[in-house]
Amino acid sequence: MPVIRYRTRDLTRLLPGQVRSMRRMEKVIGRSDDMLIIRGVNVFPTQIEEQVLRCEGLGPHFVVELYRDGRLDALRVLAEARPSHADEEARAAQCKLLASHIQNVIGLGVQVTVREPGQIVRSAGKAVRVVDLRSSPQKTTI
Hints:
Layout: E1 3-4, E2 10-12, E3 30-31, E4 36-38, E5 41-43, H1 45-54, E6 58-69, E7 72-81, H2 88-106, E8 111-115, E9 130-132
Helix pairs in contact: 1-2
């Protein structure tokens, strides 16, 4: 049965008691909220969404991909262009604009890819905004 650590929102388990007076805790297996910690920066998908919606040439659909860049965690944002900004030059400009917005507001350099309209996968029900591509046992999709 998972335990939520008070105020940190980490998911973990208490190990059975032993001779010690304090119970031990298992490794943290995830979080109860959607916050991501990338290179020491706390990132919420809603922060990314605010920056995507700030760009006039981008639609409201996006996906955040977590991946490993060597030994470090990295973040990639896949966004969708509006039909009026679907040409190659406009998409490249929107990539630079979104990357600079995220860098200035969140303080994290991210890789941004702007795709043509309709290319971001829509999900039935709750939107899948975060895809974890890291090879660690802590794989979560929020």
